[in-house]
Every structure is written in C-alpha cells, then in structure tokens.
Amino acid sequence: MYTLCPPSAADPNPAGWSSIEQLTGVTAVEVSSSWPEPPAPPVVNVKFEQALERLQAHIGTRFLIEEETGPYGRVVHLTAFPAAASAAASSGGATESPATDSATVHWMNMTGENAALQLVPTDGGTTFLVLSVVEGPGYQVEPLAFRLPDLVEHTPEDWWILEAVTGIAAARVVSGWDRKKNTVADDVVRLLAPLIAQQPAPFVLACTGGGDGRLVYRFEKDLFRRELFRRRWATGRNPFVFVGRPQRVISATQTILLDLRSDELFRMDETPVQMIQRDGRWVARRLVDTAEVGALLHETVNYAKASARRIPEDAWPARQLEQHLLVRPDDRWRRLHAVVRTPILRPDGTVLDKPGYDAQTHFWYAPDPGIVFPPVPAEPTTEDVRRARIALKLPLCEFPFFAESDRTAAIAMLFDQIVLPMILGNRPLYFFDAPAGAVGSGKSTIPKIWKSVLTGVPGAASPIGTSEEEIQKQITGTLVDNRPPVIVFDNLTGVVASAALCALATTTEWTARILGQSKMPAVPNTTTWAMTGNGARLSQDIARRCVLIRLNPPPEAFRRTDFAIPNIERYGVVHRAELIHAALVLARAWVVAGRPKDPNPDMILGSFESWVETVPAILAHAGFASLAPAVRAANARDQDKEELLELALRWRERADGQPSAAIALALLAVEYGLLEGPLLRGRDRPPTNPAILGKRMAQVLEKYLGHVLVDRRLVRHAHVVNGCRVYGLELVN
C-alpha cells in the first residue's frame, strides 16, 4: 500500500505525481494552484478530484482502500495498481510511479523487443516456463517463472493460472514428456505469448530494492494473473477450470470471479448479490438458489475434464460448487449495504454523487435515468441555506401541523436518509398522528412524499401485521429483499406496542431467520420506518423510541380542494432533484460550520445520541424550529403510564394501595381492561398460567419504579409471595 498526496504549496511535486500526470494529464502545477485560500479542511480541489476520477477509471475503484482528509483535502491510500493501466503509459520500458518508503510501482508493456517467454530446463531435471525482461537504463526485472507439470510434480501450485488462459490441462503437459520433445509445452508458449504481448495495457512491476544506481523490479504474480484473465475475457473467451479436485475448483472459481467480475459481485449480509440493470435502473439481484449461481458461473468460466486430450471436453463441476458459493460467498467480495437513488453525505461530510459503488459507505449510488441532481456547493452561503430551507418547507406548507416543531420533525424524516452514513448508531421511528376521528389531515401523505423523493416513484403505505410474528416477518422481508429507503405502516389502531418495532429502532443490524432458510444473517437496518394513526396510544417502549409528528386538521378538512399544490405526491417526484439538493446544501453548511450541536438543552433522546448530534443539529443550524417538543410529545403519549395511573386508583379503591403481589395486580388490570398491550401481547385473552401473567405485570411495574402515580410513589418490597414480587404505593410527602 502507498499514499497518494496531492501537490500543494508545502509540497509542489510529491513523490510519484509525475506518473499520475502521465496517466491522467493533470499536472502538479494545476493541482497546486487550485487550492482555495486559505486551505482549511474540508477543502475540495477540483483538479485533484479530476485526477483521482481519471485514475480510478484506469485502475478500478476496488483498489482504493481508504480515504481521509488531510491539511490539503483528500489523502488517498492505494494498494498496488492493477495491470489495467492507461495507454498513456510508455509502450516500452518502465515508467516512473508513486513511491513510498517500502515500494515503488512501475508499469511496463511486454513486446518482442524487451521481453521473452521461453522454456528453461534445470540441472535437476525440471523445466520452467520463464518470462524474462531485457534490462533497461537504471533498472532490471526479475524473471517470472512457472514450473511445468512433469512425472514428478503433476500439478504445480500456480499452473492452474496457465491452464485457465491456454486451455491446456496439466495432465496433457505431463503426457507430453513421453516424447523426445514436449510439443505440448511449446503449445503453452505459443498460446501465452500473444496474451503477454497484447497492447496497450501494461503489466505491474514492484520495486524490491537496488544498488549501484540500478533498481530491481519483480512481477506481482496476483496482478499478472489478473491481467492475463482480463485480456482473455476481453476477447470474449472465458478462462478454463479443469474439474476433478473440488477444493481446487472452488478456489480457482472464486479467484476468477474476483478478477473478472468484482465490479458487479458483492456480499449483502451473507448473501451473494450481482448488480444488474433492469429497465434502465441498477438493482441488486440476490443470488438465492443454485440455478442463479450456475448461470453466473456458466457466463464466466469454461469447465472441462482434466485429461490429455488436445481439445478440452466440457464438464460441469459437482453441485457442491454452486452450493458452496451460495452459502459462503467469497469474503474478498466487497460489502454492499444498499442501493441509493439520490446523492447522500459520507461520514466525512463529503457528498456521494458519483454513480457506482462507494467504498467508504458501502452504498451503490444509482441515479434514475434522465435525472440530474444539481452540484452541491463545497461551502454553501447564507443565501444558499435560506433558499434550501424555503424549498424544503414548500411541500409541507399547507399541512395542518399542531406546532412548528412538528413540521421540523416531518422534514427530519428526509434527512434520516440524506445523512444516513453519518449517523453512527440507532435511528428513531417516526409516528404521524392526528386526533381520533379526524379525516383529511394528510398524515399518510407526508411520509409518502419523502418516499417518492428518495425513490423517484410514487410512495405507498402498507398495513402492519396483526401479531408479533407477522410484524417480524414484514421487517425481515423488507430488509432482506429490497431494503427501500422508507417503509410506512398506515393507520395503526389501539395501543401501539410491538417488541419487534422496539428492537428495530434500537439496532443498526436486524437479525432474524430468513423464510425458507436456516441462516440468520445480521442485516444492516438502512430503512427509515414511519407509522401513522389517529389518536394513537403508544406503549412506553415505543414512545421513547419515537419522534411524534402531530397534525390537527379543521373539521371537514377532507372536503378542501383549493390547494396551492394540487397533487403533492407528484410534486415530490417532479421536484425531487430540487428537494434533495436543498437537503444536501443544509447538511453541507452544517459540516462546513464545524458540525455544531443543537443549542436546545432539551433535545435529548436516550439510545439515539448519534442521531441527536446529527439530524436535529443540522435542522437547528439551518434555522428550523427545535425538534425537542416533538420528542417530548412522544413521551407524553405513554399509554402504559396512563393506564397504570388508572390501575393505581383501582388499587387504592380495592386495597388502599397496600402491598400486593404482581399476579394480584395483573388480575385487577385484566378485570378493568387495563394494560392489555403488555399483558395480553396481541391475544384476545390472558395466558392460562397465572405465573406468566404475574411475570408480565412485574415487567411493567419495574419500568415505573419510583414514578409518582397521582400522590403516591410506586415501590417494590423485599419479600415475595408464592414466587411473585410484591409492590406498594408509598405516600409522597
């Protein structure tokens, strides 16, 4: 690995930039003179970004393994360059390349004048196929050697590479030693030589040291192999893999897929996925059965029988190969979290707006055909912020929010996705609520607007499952199958209490068994979850995980037709580029300002600290009303506590608040229809085992220990009755 630093006033010609200049056409002077004044991070140098983009086009983004921000913008740490470098590299001899303390990488084209491929016998009776390079001015190159198969060593370790590009099995080479001259080995040279001399793509050489004014280079065998495979692939011919030894077949197949299709194959959770275009849009296609894996292998590899026959005979490997790749995708494949349709912000505050895979976030940015998102200024002005704030308020201007903080909370839902990679922790649920019986509030429309803005298609909502098992299946199916940016559960009724929803809000990865499979992968929770209801009653666990957006429509609001924006959901689709740009401008302005915190001391939401430091802070910096009232409003909707207050009154009527076992209090709650959510858990009747009912009641009471219920404090006594905890109400002085 070496580090690529941009030219600057402090270092106008860093080591290796002359090679970058040769490959990209961007000079050190251009980069050095393009820094804004003063150069304070974060800074974007247009010329350096241009050079980096061209360099990535030559070498492939999979070799960019880390980026960071230095005093002069981005510093890029690169692995050794792949062999698919630019034709701009010199056609003969080595070219100067970026240097580090430990290694220098050079590029070299192989021609009949500067390289030779020949068979070299040794005194020990073995023969090697050797690629040697003529010494040049100031350098020499170590030969690259492959041992030929013979009667002693039937399958040398690396011979499968030459098998793959020539189609000559090791067994055929071994059979050639029966003759005075091994013509099969000559065939290997004859087939391999044109691939090596193919122009203009050069090979990669790594410096191993030097002395007497001369540098010594060697071939990187992995990169040499990758270049050979790609050259064969470019002519429409698949590499060969000869079947027979299952482990060798598996490892060879994995390596060929990695070398040839790493730009499209990824690991999503523990499932292999392939990026494909469908109806003009990039989508992640999960390879979920052996037929799909088999089709991929058929497109990439020629499988043949390992024999001494001149023409390879087609053969399909055992089914265990497909099953192995399906169950255990190659760890070298890059991780993919999700496909996004709009630009988003990376954790370092830069904008992900280049289509394709982003190594820093593990997202694939795939804008819809025809849409153009305006460029985001590196340092938004006050006027940019003002216009962006107006643009985001406009689609919500006619909704009857209870307070301005509720409008801010509705806008926060969009930012939940725009700055998703910056939130290093849990994200809350969003609950859109209107009074019971209210019609025409638009509570279901707002989350669907943001869904259409983020996806480019009209938003939709779905009912939530009627049991915990159904809800868990809905969540698992959503995150495993397509992982959309927004999911809306519409028109929730009764008390909203779900262990699955609670777990969803307080985890960055969702773990559940996939339907029809035995594995339980940890799936990244990249979706924003919204719910709607009328006069919703929230359990304590849900309430403290929610941002509540309250709407208060006037009577007969559903009859209104004189809207300034008649079709608001279509507005979101048509103006999505403008709305996304506005959100990005506000987020960038916050980053440039040093990421200030929300000044409201009440903006606290336990278990969501990273979200609080990001989304509410961005909106506060942009001049929106504080989100704190929306968070407090959710906590005030704690239905469990309201019903516990009612239970306390019944308890005092029945036993004057004297110490009582949890089971007795549970039976009292059931008698009066209280706390049905935590006690019945979605069922029509309480459990037949009283101990289970008492345990559930104790769990509720434990959450509220020390709380004052009217004028008495809930306490737990030290003793137990029949295995049940005992609770009491103490008078508050």
Account of the 3D structure:
This protein is of the alpha/beta class. The protein has 4 domains: 2-79, no CATH class; 112-334, no CATH class; 383-636, P-loop containing nucleotide triphosphate hydrolases (Rossmann fold), CATH 3.40.50.300; 639-731, Arc Repressor Mutant, subunit A (Orthogonal Bundle). Helices cover 36% and strands 21% of the residues. It is built from 25 helices and 33 strands. The strands form 11 sheets. It has a 4-stranded mixed β-sheet, with helices on one face. Helix 13 (445-455) packs parallel to helix 17 (568-574) and helix 14 (468-481) runs parallel beside helix 15 (499-505). The longest helix is centred in the last third of the chain and has 17 residues, at 576-592.
Quick structural summary:
This protein is of the alpha/beta class and 733 residues long. Helix content is 36%, strand content 21%. The protein is built from 25 helices and 33 strands.
